[in-house]
């Protein structure tokens, strides 16, 4: 096997959330969002997390992005545990992992220009000057198929698909090794979905980016990922290569998911 | 006489950028018990079309053409009379079950409300009827949950409550606007199965709006493909799925990733983006994005070509495209 540590190693991740106390003297009830999830992402490869709402897949994304702290377990990026880093170190480490959110309408600040939105991660790293930031923003926009003239526009001037490109450009600008994408195409129309999926595929080949793709759509995961983990009630119940897994599902939950897919008859 | 007959429907909307024609002359009819699907992407006019059937367009909208329900003209009908039809003879299921339900009313009250309004039932009778309806849509232990509020139910259960509300008065026509988009895939199937079995059982006609071709193929017997306010292709679902005559329909099908497709395959995309309604070209709405565009496409709107028995396509280059596609199929 591989001797160098994987790009991302998630080990035995547990996250329980405490709910408001129901009885005055009793322990507060907890939601067990994640119950020991482990997986690895090798550099340049992509992993998909499939599951339904409430299965814990978005909790995985939040923990991997270090936006939330696990109850126990660890997330290591290139061997470094993200949750034990100091605030300043975490901030610099963030250049290597970026996120693309589901809703291209809610995730871009309507009052900022595209140039500011896209360059913001660089500004947070505080290593570059304004002029260089603008140049890098233009580069990132070009990589996602937008124009330099778009830098001074505002988000409302763009369609949903274009906004998702802007969000991807913002994730690309720090030249990350890993992009966590939480349902990146589910808010988009079918034909626009295809454009964004192709773009993600191109960027993967061009820059060697790994994706951690969170989705409920098996076809999207099949299209983009080398490995799939099926999450159910906070645990990974099945994993494997998408083609093999979908053709040969063992766990009843995976089968339920597959049988719920409505196929369009092919010609 | 068909239950619903829509003829040359035009809807003009006032937008910030000036007047826009959101629906540009669509016609279809629906018999009792028939199921119709409308597919298209955001901004194609599919939701506006069904909103006009419900009489729920903004007051500035201009509607011309005709919508006849059982022979009664709905275009220009005074609001008072429209209220007799809405929720009574036409029921509607909305996309987002959380926002369609009122969070401060119990579900018994919400499901019973149309019965008190349209059928003149008393509160107690409406409550009893609501219980039957909730049982029927599969809310477990409905009797003890009548006084629960929407937030106490899961997404799938809320959509079932929305269905119970739409069905309360036994409508002749049920409209479902993206009823499963907000739901998980396994719940989606349950809800679609429920809608289908209720439609069959109660002999209603169904109009189902969806952007998901899988949902359409498994639920309805005939379909319309809409683009830029026009119906570009229509006919029995099987025929449309088998022939995919219009270039837009072809593009829509090709763009979907499929389970089991080999890795590294690129998806076919439709170049460009959906035009805004204000900027719709005078000719074919798909002109410019379509790979087969010729000058004539920009100039005039294509008329419908009927492929017997009743599969209609609005494309002026239908034969040429079939010939090109045929050659490509043979060549490689």
Shape of chain B: globular
Strand line-up of the largest beta sheet of chain A: 6-7-8-3-9-10
| Run of helices and strands of chain A | EEEHEEHEHHHEHEHEEHH
Radius of gyration of chain B: 21 Å
- Model regions low in confidence, pLDDT < 50 over at least 5 residues of chain B: none
Question: Judging from the principal axes of the Cα atoms, what is the shape of chain A?
Answer: globular
What structural category characterises the helix and strand content of chain B? alpha/beta
Record field, number of beta strands of chain A? 10
How many strands in all of chain B? 12
Percent in strands of chain A: 15-25%
Unreliable residue stretches of chain A: none
Question: Which chain pair shows the most residues in contact?
Answer: A-B, 38 and 42 residues
The average pLDDT of chain A is 90
| Tally of helical runs of chain B | 13
Helical run tally of chain A: 9
Main sheet specs of chain A: 6 strands, mixed
Oligomer: heterodimer
* Mean pLDDT rating of chain B: 89
Question: Any key phrases for this structure?
Answer:
heterodimer; A: 267 residues; alpha/beta; six-stranded mixed beta sheet; four-stranded antiparallel beta sheet; B: 332 residues; eight-stranded mixed beta sheet; 13 helices; 12 strands
What does this structure look like?
The complex is a heterodimer of chains A (267) and B (332). With 267 residues, chain A is an alpha/beta fold. Chain A contains 9 helices and 10 strands. Chain A has a 6-stranded mixed β-sheet, with helices on both faces. In chain A, α3 runs parallel beside α5. Chain B is α/β, with parallel strands linked by helices. Chain B has helices at residues 46-54, 79-85, 97-100, 107-118, 123-136, 142-145, 155-167, 185-202, 213-219, 237-243, 247-255, 295-299, 318-330, and strands spanning 4-15, 18-30, 35-39, 62-69, 72-73, 90-93, 173-177, 205-210, 222-227, 230-236, 305-307, 311-313. In chain B, the strands form 2 sheets. In chain B, strands 6-7-8-3-9-10-12-11 form an 8-stranded mixed β-sheet, with helices on both faces. A 4-stranded antiparallel β-sheet of chain B has the order 2-1-4-5, with helices on one face. In chain B, a hairpin with a 2-residue loop joins β9 (222-227) and β10. In chain B, α4 (107-118) runs parallel beside α7 and α7 (155-167) packs parallel to α8 (185-202). The longest helix of chain B is centred in the middle third of the chain and has 18 residues, at 185-202. The chains are: A alpha/beta (267), B alpha/beta (332). Chains A and B meet through α5, α6, α7, α8 and α9 of A and α8, α9 and α11 of B.
């Amino acid at each position: 096997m591989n001797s160098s540590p994987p790009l991302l190693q998630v080990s035995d991740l547990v996250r329980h959330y405490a709910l408001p106390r129901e009885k005055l003297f009793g322990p507060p009830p907890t939601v067990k969002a994640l119950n020991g999830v482990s997986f690895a992402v090798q550099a340049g490869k992509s992993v998909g997390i499939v599951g339904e709402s409430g299965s814990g897949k978005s909790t995985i994304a939040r923990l991997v992005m270090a936006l939330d702290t696990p109850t126990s377990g660890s997330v290591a990026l290139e061997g470094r545990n993200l949750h034990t880093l100091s605030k300043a170190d975490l901030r610099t480490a963030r250049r290597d992992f970026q996120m693309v959110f589901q809703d291209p309408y809610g995730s871009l600040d309507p009052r900022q220009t595209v140039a500011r939105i896209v360059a913001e991660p660089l500004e947070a790293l505080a290593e570059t000057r304004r002029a260089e930031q603008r140049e890098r923003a233009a580069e990132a926009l070009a990589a996602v198929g937008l124009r330099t003239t778009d830098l001074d526009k505002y988000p409302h001037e763009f369609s949903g698909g274009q906004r998702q490109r802007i969000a991807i450009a913002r994730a690309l600008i720090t030249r990350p090794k890993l992009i966590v994408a939480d349902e990146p195409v589910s808010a988009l129309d079918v034909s626009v979905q295809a454009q964004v999926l192709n773009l993600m595929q191109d960027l993967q080949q061009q820059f060697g980016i790994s994706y951690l793709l969170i989705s409920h759509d098996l076809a999207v995961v099949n299209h983009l990922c080398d490995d799939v983990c099926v999450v159910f009630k906070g645990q990974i119940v099945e994993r494997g290569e998408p083609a093999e897994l979908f053709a040969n599902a063992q766990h009843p939950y995976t089968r339920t998911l597959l049988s719920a897919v409505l196929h369009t008859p092919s010609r | 006489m068909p239950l619903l007959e829509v003829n040359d429907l035009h809807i003009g909307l006032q937008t910030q950028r000036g007047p826009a024609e959101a629906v540009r002359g669509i016609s279809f009819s629906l018999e009792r018990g028939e199921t119709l699907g409308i597919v298209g992407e955001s901004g194609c006019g599919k939701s506006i079309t069904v909103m006009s059937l419900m009489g729920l367009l903004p007051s500035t909208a201009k509607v011309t053409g005709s919508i006849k329900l059982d022979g009664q003209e709905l275009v220009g009908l005074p609001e008072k009379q429209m209220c007799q039809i809405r929720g009574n003879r036409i029921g509607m299921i909305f996309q987002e079950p959380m926002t369609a339900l009122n969070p401060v009313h119990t579900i018994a009250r919400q499901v019973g409300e149309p019965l008190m309004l349209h059928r003149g039932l008393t509160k107690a009778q409406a409550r009893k009827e609501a219980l039957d309806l909730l049982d029927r849509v599969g809310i477990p232990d409905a009797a003890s949950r009548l006084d629960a509020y929407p937030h106490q139910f899961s997404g799938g259960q809320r959509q079932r409550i929305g269905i119970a509300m739409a069905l309360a008065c036994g409508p002749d026509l049920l409209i479902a606007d993206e009823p499963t988009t907000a739901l998980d895939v396994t719940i989606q199937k349950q809800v679609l199965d429920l809608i289908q079995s209720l439609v069959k059982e109660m002999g209603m006609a169904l109009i189902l709006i969806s952007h998901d071709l899988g949902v359409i193929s498994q639920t309805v017997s005939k379909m319309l493909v809409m683009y830029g306010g026009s119906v570009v292709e229509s006919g029995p679902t099987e025929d449309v799925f088998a022939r995919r005559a219009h270039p837009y329909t072809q593009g829509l099908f090709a763009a979907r990733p499929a389970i089991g497709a080999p890795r590294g395959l690129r998806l076919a995309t439709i170049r460009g983006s959906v035009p805004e309604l204000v900027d719709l070209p005078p000719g074919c709405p798909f002109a410019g994005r379509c790979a087969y565009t010729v000058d004539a496409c920009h100039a005039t709107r294509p008329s419908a070509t009927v492929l017997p028995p009743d599969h209609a396509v609005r494309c002026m280059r239908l034969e040429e495209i079939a010939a090109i596609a045929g050659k490509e199929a043979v060549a490689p």
